[in-house]
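Weekly modeling sync, notes
Attendees: S.R. (lead), two postdocs, one rotation student

Agenda item 3: backlog of single-chain predictions. S.R. asked that every request posted to the team notebook include the full sequence so nobody has to chase files. The rotation student volunteered to paste the first one in as an example of the format we agreed on. Action items at the bottom.

Example entry:
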Amino acid sequence: MSVSCQRNTGTINLDQQIQQLHNKGLFNGAIIVTDGGNTILSKGFGYANFEAQAPFNTHTSMDTGSITKTFTALAMMILADSKEIDLNTPVCSFIQEFPYGSVTIQHLLEQTSGIVSDDYVFERAQKGVTITNSVFLDFLVNDTPSLEFTPGSEYMYNGYNYRLLAILIETISEGSYEDFIRMNMAEPLDLENWFLRPARSMDLPSNRAFGYSKTEDSLIAFGSEDFEGFYGDCNLFFSTEDLSKWSKSFFENFIYPVDKLNQALRKKSKLSEFNILHWYKLTDHEKYHFTGDWKGFYAMVHYDIDRNRSIVYLTNTNMPHWLRPALVRNINQFLDNGQLPSWNYPESLELTNKEIIGDYQLKKEQTIHIIENDSLLKINTNNKTVRLFKLSSNIYYAPAIDLWVWFARDDKKNLKIHCSSIYELTEGIKNSGHQGP
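Predicted structure, as returned to the notebook:
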């Protein structure tokens, strides 16, 4: 079903705008937009399975990647509250063999534990054998790799933390992670299309969405990773309908006491833009969002508690990086004032690290610093220094602050920076004396 509206001028139709993006090959998936209790748009565009020509609709389940972390975080909070557990309690108080006495539950939730990257396990695990959460724990117990940093001193986005949280949930609740999610979230919210991914890819439901990569004008289906028996940080599948209900639960049908929920939502780490429930909180207002990105799949969940507004979309064709935040940003502007801004996208510009490091002057006297440390690019903004990953020839991403960055040259060949979030697109010029070679 599609419900769309025309604002103010009577000439802008959100349904048609998304359809145009689909026609240009920029968006394939499903989207649900609600505002103030009204459904503005609820519709699928294109195919969930191109080979079978199965439509992608709002009930289509998809691998939503790291969206799983938002479920795991709230599950841990619900459990800690019911058992009266202090989040500063060391993990080894519950998992006795856990070898790091200084790592607490809160460190795992905030991803500040210092535990090695999950690549440590993927590079060492036996091929052709199911990799479970227990396998991840066993590697820590048996190898005890050194912590990357003192717990609580730095932020490092790392799925290992949330797999350990899933083990904690099962240990403390004396039940399965899947059952805890079902009883405390899925059933109360009437989530109808969700499931925990089976370890073997051959056991995945055939009516799910398939992920695709784009090569020029053709689509190539990604193969599902096999023997994935881990969870907590990923591997929960949801539909757009499911995640719309999930987002609206934070301002409509609370499954956690309102006062405690509000406190948790506002409790933000000093080292990143995440709150304790693993939602980005980029502003001082009650606006939150998070994303999931995996093998052609991209999921976005955004909700504005003050406006009772929710924007959720799922897509399966390797959505362009520049469009991911812009879609939410432009829809919000449309809902606020009836005007849908143009879709500004970056041109191709290949630059070296040496060329882009330096200081950039943005509006409101804000300065962004890009530095290189041990061959790693980092960006400093708002007193936070985080890793900057190169995604393509001219697109960079900082996951700790959910900032997308690209570069251009002005008429005088000065280097310009574009910083894109779901709330604004800002530009800046590289300061003189830092123009690269």
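Discussion: group reviewed the output briefly. The radius of gyration is 22 Å.
Action items: rotation student to repeat for the remaining queue; S.R. to check formatting next week.
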